[in-house]
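Quarterly update from the structural biology core.
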Amino acid sequence: MSNEENQDHEKQPDDSFLHERKHRWWDVRASFLTGLVVLAPIGLTAYLAITLIQFADRVVQPLLPEQYMPSFSIPGLGLIVFFVATTLLGALTANFFGHAILNFVARIIDRLPVVRTIYGAIRQIFETVVSQSERSFQEVGLIEYPRPGLWAVCFVAAETKGEIIHHTHKEMVSVFLPTTPNPTSGFLLFVPRKDITILDMSVEEGAKLVISGGLVVPDFDPDAVKKNELPAGVKELPVKKAKSKSKEQTDAA
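Predicted structure, tokenized:
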């Protein structure tokens, strides 16, 4: 890493809550709230991790043969066994023989009146979670919603294909418009590509913006252009500004 990159890295501001929260050390209330911000995430994360490990040990260890059990307790052994067994099950299911067994079990469950409803709902939830983790959003965009002149943050999923393109005859993009403060719910919109303004912020920064209701705004420097991505002979890229449709019509006139 060069000296210039090191200097740029050192100049980058820490946008964390703790960096911005400055107070006098004798302010008991402010000190307590700052300490709570530090302690609560660490404590809750450690508590959930310990609870998960203990739960896995209680469930998995009794299933292991006694000759394979160590003479002393190993915290997390059940979680390790569960991870290895689940990975092997996924590998076996990926082949033709595994698919045949899975389809056979699914047909049996589908004949059970109550069990099939519970199984179908749980399977759909896990398939949705796994597919979303494998196919994450690509970019953060800005669209006019719910009317021209009002702007909303959206997450760009992928290019729209299939029957929707056949009926619209336009180059459309599938976007997810999240709600505040719960970004897991929202609306699926098919927007013409020309009507989307792609933002420079990352998907994680966009999620923070939505969850906080606009209180946590990512840093943005319009002069900080990625020089390495510029075409040859181009020194600067124009900043794309979002304009309302009424403004565009006025300019055209």
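DSSP finds nine helices and five strands in the chain.
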